[in-house]
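**Polypeptide and fold**
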Amino acid sequence: MPVITAPKSILSGFLSGELRDLYRLEPINLEPANIQAALNTPSSVSRTALAEALRNYHHSLGLLTPVLKKQLERLSLPQAKVVVAGQQAGLLGGPAFSVHKAADAILLARQLDTLEVPVLPIFWIASQDHDSLEVASTTLVDRQERIFHLHLPLPQGRPIGRIALEPGWVAGIVQQLQDFDAPSDFKNQVLERFQQAAQGAVSYADWFAKLISQLLGEFGLLILDPMHPALAPLFASGIKAELQNPLEGPALIEAAAHLLLERGYTPQLRRPKGATNLFLEGDDGQRRLLRFDGKFFHAERRYTRLELENILEQDPSRITPAAGLRPIIQDSALPCAALVMGPGEIAYLAQLKGVYELHGLAQPLIWPRLSITWLEPPATRILNKYGLSAATFQADPRGSLERVLLERSGQAEIFRHSLSQLEATFNTLLAQIPTLDPTLRGATEKAKQHNQNTLERLEQNLARSLFRAETELESQMKRLEHFLLPLGVPQERELNFFSLMMKHGTVPLERLLSQKAGSRLELEL
C-alpha cells in the first residue's frame, strides 16, 4: 500500500528558507542588511498625493485626529515608507486576529521607523471582497461562559464597500449584547464605541473602518478603503496596466503553481485558461471575474478594452484586483517596506514575485503576523491543573486530556514499558533473521507493526474509558472549548477582540501593543 503524505505547508517552507527563491527578502529577519533592503524597496509613488487622498478619506469619516494629521505630515515626506496589514471588514472588527494584525503593523512600523526614513502603519480594508458570509458574523463569550454569536443579513455577491449600513443593524446588535455578562463600565464603553462608529458611516466598510481607527488610530494607524471615492483613483494606473496584458500575470501565477507542485506544495492560486486577475462590478452591482479570449473581455456581458478603460476613468472602484493581483495594485500606490500577513496570504505571495516584476515593482518584506491566544482566568486555571498549553488543547482537545488521565493513572508508563519491550524483542528477532531465513524479514516487520498498532489502540481505548469516567473532566473540557475553541474554531479566528474588552477593559489592548512585532504568545488576563 502506498504511503500517503500530507502536502507541505507553504508557511513552513517560507520560514525554513526552502522557498527562499520565491520571495525577494529574508523572512522574519530584522538584521540591518535586511531592514535596509526593505527600507530601500524602490517606489515612485507620490507621497504627497497619497497623504492628501488619505487626509480626505479620514476627514470624510470624522477620523482626522491630531495624531493622524501628524502621521500624514510624515507620510508626505519623499523618503517615507509604510507597513501594510489588511483584512476583510468583519462584523465589530471581525475575529481577534484582525485586530492583532493591525496592531502588528503598528509594532513593526515602530521597529523600522528612523529619523531618515519615516515608517508608518496602514491598515487596508478588503472592501472590494464580495464574500459577505465571511464578514457577516462574529462571536463573543461573556463571564458566564455563554456564547453570543451575532449575525447580520448582508447581501451576497456585492463588494462589501457597496453595502449600505442599516441603522437597525447597529441597534439590534447593541440590544443583543445588553444581556452580555461583564462589568457594566467596560461593557457600556464598548457598546458606545459601536454606536459612535456607526455615526456618519455610509457603508458597512465605513463602520468597520471607524471601529478599527477608534481602537488603534491613537497609536498612529492609518486606515485605507480602496473603494472609497477619495482613494480609488490611486489604483487606476495599476489596473489599467493589467488590462494591457491581462493573461500575462495569470500565466506567471500558474507557472509558479507548477513549481510549487513539483516541490511537494499545494499552491493557493490557480488560473484556468482565459481567467484574468481582475474583477468587474457589473451594471447589476454583482462582482465577477473578468475573462479574456484574446480580443474581448467577458463578465455578465462582453466588453472591449476601451469600454473597461472608460469604466475605470469614470469610476475606478468598479474594476478591482483578484487575490493574485491585490498586493501588486496596493504596492503600485503605496511606498511599501513590509507586508504583515497571515499564512494564506504568505502562500499567495509565493506565486507573485513574477507579477511584481511584470509591473515594475519590487516585492516588500513579507512579515508573518503576530499571533496571540488570550487566557482568561478560568481557562488558565484549568490548563495549569492539567499541565497543558492552549496550543496543545486546541490541536487535540479530547486527546490532550485523555493523555493527561493516562499519565495520572500510571497506565501511560505501563504502555510505554510494554512498547519498549516489544521493540526490543522484535529487534533481537530481526537481528537473527539474516542468519536464519532472510525471506522472513518482511513478515517479521509486518508483525512488529501490527503489534505496535494493537497496543496503541488499546492505550487509546483505555484513555477514552478513563475520560468517560471523569465527569468533571468532561465539564472542564467544554469550558476550555468555550474559551479556546469557540464554535469549534481556534480562538483567534473566531472570538471578537471586543469580547475581551467588555470583560477586561483596555488591558488586552495595552498588553497587545506592548509585544514585539511577530510574536506568537499565550497571554494571561
In short: The mean pLDDT is 90.
